[in-house]
Amino acid sequence: MADPIGSINNPVPYKDIYTAKDINGVNLWSGGANAVAKVQALLGTRLSPAQERIVDIEGYFKGYYKDSEGNTTYGVGQTGKYMTPKGFFTAFEEEKARTASKIKNFKKLPEYLKTEFIQSGYRGDIFGSPKAIELFNKGDYKKAAITFLDHDNYRAAKLLKNSIYDRFNATYDAIIRYGKEQSAASINEKTAKTKISWDQVKKINQGYRNG
Questions:
Q1: Distance of CA 37 to the CA centre of its chain
Q2: CA torsion, points 32, 98, 92, 90, in degrees to nearest 10?
């Protein structure tokens, strides 16, 4: 008797992951909020915002499948030792720590940027752009964002306009947003340092008149 579709010995081919069904005719793959709800139910706990973000864009597959590179994969894009229900938590924490170790002052970054860095780290994209990381850590945010998209995976995804393309762009947008915020904060700080009160102006003028 053949192994059931979606089992580890009979993973679903990549081309069929969105249409594959279990023996009851229920889709094995789900995405977005539906995927988040299924993963939370499976694990019996509420996901953190960053975890929700990954599940939302990665999707959830109830079983095993082959990813775009032919790797046997499970659940939320989990491979190797992580191919168990709770392996998602382990993979998440390890990739979060790995990402944080590469990005300067990671803990001080706004949540929206940390979330996009983590989802990019979970897929491995940010680690494929060491130059982008270097530029970001130097404070050259615009160049860092542009360099991040200078990636073969991004160029391939751009042709397909798939979820990987969206994920790259989301990280790009977050870096650009952060760069603009930092620039605005710097301008405001400089303005505050050079700003003088009306009383100071009057004192200066009084000094000229008395001179």
A1: 19
A2: 160
Count of helix runs (H) and strand runs (E) in the chain: 9, 3
3-class DSSP assignment, residue 171: helix
Asked if 166 contacts 211 with a C-beta cutoff of 8 angstroms, the reply is: no
Burial 101-111 (b: 16+ CB within 10 A, else e): ebbeebeebee
How far, CA to CA in Å, does 133 sit from each of 2, 27, 99, 100?
47, 38, 10, 11
Residue pair 36/47 in contact by the 8 Å Cβ criterion:
yes
Question: Within 10 Å of residue 94's Cβ, how many Cβ atoms?
Answer: 13
In this prediction, residue 165 carries a pLDDT of 93
pLDDT at 29: 95
Q: pLDDT tens-digit profile of 79-123?
A: 999 999 999 999 999 999 999 999 999 999 999 999 999 999 999
Closest among 50, 45, 211 to 121, alpha carbons compared: 50
At residue 86, what are phi and psi to the nearest 5 degrees?
Answer: -80, -5
What is the per-residue pLDDT for 75?
Answer: 97
Tokens standing for residue 178: 């952060």
**160: three-class secondary structure by DSSP:** helix
